[in-house]
Design goal:
CATH architecture of the largest domain: Alpha-Beta Barrel
Strand content: 15-25%
CATH class of the largest domain: Alpha Beta
Radius of gyration: 20 Å
Structural class: alpha/beta
Number of helices: 11
Largest sheet: 9 strands, mixed
Order of helices and strands: EEEHEEHEEHHEHEHEHHEHEHHE
Strand order of the largest sheet: 7-1-2-8-9-10-11-12-13
Number of domains: 2
């Protein structure tokens, strides 16, 4: 069983309890305007460019079989529509001006990397977190890794938006110790505008997980002008308070540090002018949700 992974982050402390290894998987059904991992949205590998590193040697253009690369003014120019993400250019670029986001790995290879930090998991009550993108975009690959972790006694967490078929979610849930469940906003029309999909399935799946008695942390990205209004916060609090088993809410303040990633992928970033919410505003939002009886934490 092979899947596509774009990063394995060791010693992570923001993706669940304890010290964890976070496995970032490719593919996501959403296109959130504020996505901080745009390289995760496509399941396939993608070219990532670092123009400042390019020395204009032309090796990349020589090996490109589709004519997607040309050298102009001693710099690499790419026609993304022609690129098939084969990775040949990255293999010959000794200046490091081209890299590939995404690597084919077997489930066994991933778990071998995860197991290297077993001692940290045991000491900190940590484990592995499968993130993305959306891990459920590669359901068979995810399930094989989850089963392997359970056999080895490794705590499992999945960071998900919940946009997954109910039967798949149910099949996987028995091997997941903790859900880090992303909740963007309550208004369906706004949700579709800013993420590309309706939130109906996601809200229904969250209800189902609470009925199964699963351990759940809610994660809410706070995007100024989009989902930080009092009406959305009030509706969010009411919805969550009607469910049983929500252990805590994590508020994730917006930041634009991913802007460079979009440039490297040849994509546009929609929220360049939005500022990070102030500490005072984040505290206000936390207090509003605490009023519903929740434990609220600012940050991962």
């Amino acid at each position: 069983m092979e899947g596509c992974v774009f990063n394995i982050m060791k010693y992570s402390i923001h993706d669940g309890p304890g010290i964890r290894t976070t496995v970032f998987m490719k593919g996501c059904p959403l296109t959130c305007w504020w996505c901080h991992n745009p390289e995760s949205q496509q399941v396939k590998r993608q070219m990532v460019r670092f123009p400042d590193r390019c020395i204009g040697c032309g090796k990349c253009a020589e090996v490109c079989t589709t004519g997607a690369i040309a050298i102009e003014d001693k710099r690499m120019k790419v026609d993304i529509k022609k690129c098939i993400s084969c990775g040949s250019c990255a293999e010959v670029c000794y200046a490091g001006a081209v890299e590939m986001a995404g690597k084919a790995m077997t489930a066994a290879e991933v778990i071998k990397e995860v197991e290297k930090d077993n001692i940290f998991y045991e000491e900190s009550v940590g484990g592995v977190t499968f993130s993305g993108g959306e891990p459920f975009m590669q359901p068979e690959f995810l399930l094989e890794m989850l089963k392997s972790c359970k056999k080895k006694g490794i705590h499992t967490a999945v960071d998900t938006c919940g946009f997954v078929k109910k039967d798949i979610l149910g099949e996987h849930s028995g091997f997941i110790d903790l859900f880090l469940y992303d909740l963007k906003m309550m208004d369906e029309a706004k949700h579709k505008k800013y993420t590309g999909v309706s939130n109906e399935l996601m809200l229904n799946n969250l209800k189902e997980l609470t009925k199964l008695g699963k351990r759940i942390f809610i994660r809410i990205p706070i995007i100024p002008g989009i989902n930080d209004d009092d009406a959305n916060l009030e509706e969010t609090g009411k919805f969550l308070s009607a469910l049983n088993g929500i252990e805590q809410i994590n508020l994730l303040p917006y930041h634009n540090i991913a802007m460079e990633k979009y440039k490297r992928l040849g994509s546009e970033y929609s929220l360049a002018d939005i500022k990070t919410p102030s500490d005072d505003r984040m505290d206000e939002i936390a207090q509003k949700l605490k009023a519903f009886g929740f434990k609220v934490k600012i940050g991962g």
